[in-house]
TrEMBL record:
SUPFAM superfamilies: Metallo-hydrolase/oxidoreductase. SMART domains: Lactamase_B (SM00849). Transmembrane segments: none annotated. Residues 38-246 form the Metallo-beta-lactamase domain. InterPro entries: Metallo-B-lactamas, NDM-1-like, RibonucZ/Hydroxyglut_hydro. Gene3D superfamilies: Ribonuclease Z/Hydroxyacylglutathione hydrolase-like. Pfam families: Lactamase_B (PF00753). This is MBL fold metallo-hydrolase.
Amino acid sequence: MQTLERNYSDKWKEYERDFDHAVAEEVIRDVAYYRTLLSNIIMIGAPNEDWVLVDTSLRQYHDRILHACEERYGTKPPKAIILTHGHFDHAGSAKKLAEHWQVPVYIHEAEMDYVTGKKAYPPGDPTVGGGLISLLSAAFPTKPVHLEKMIKPLPNDGTIPHLKEWRYIETPGHTPGHISLYREKDQIFIAGDAISTEKPESSWSVIFPFQHIYGPPAYFTEDWMTAEQSVKKIAALNPSVIIAGHGIPMHGEMMQKELKELATNFIDQAIPKHKRH
Ligand SMILES: [Zn+2]
Ligand SMILES: [Zn+2]
């Protein structure tokens, strides 16, 4: 265990120095992502066009996120920041970035209390074990995310401000107001933590990512039964590409097959054994 932890902290330090590599990778012409060590941020919009940022990683990453965004869009700020949910590994840099760009941050109504200091998420579940935890313990914030001044609830009709072609899909379970983003014309799906394309509980996946479809990160998932319904909802949309909060984007037959399997066998595949009732 100690060796592993040392590996993580070495990797972390190396990453900290790796500022110049903060560059987004294009998934298609108008969707790109930037993978921080722990979680992804997604940029929707082609270079030179209006754009929107989805999720903001940990608070330690705001300068690197800014670097990656400026590489793609110059100094043109996004129209808004959309959060899939309020966990600190997705909302961590929202405040600094929103202040820098002077733009609003949107989140589902049911998440509002968690990013305005009114409610706290339940603490992570250490019994699920694994790699994410040793990494997270290094990054865990001492204070909750406070976005009172810039946060707004998403419209409740599924539309997303500044993203005409996109809809948000309610995918609760991991958190009460978790959302994913979906564009029907090319079936691109931005999953947040409703599913993952790496297994965050695996000690090695952060360093050696393998692409597979997994359930939501177990450490922070609150309601497994609701999470299962959300995965079934995602599978029914039959996405062509999935960009999850954790892991490298996936597309194609293997992804679609694994997504269907996960939706069918969610209890066995996603829920940690000792949590199945
Ligand atoms: Zn989460
Ligand atoms: Zn996450």
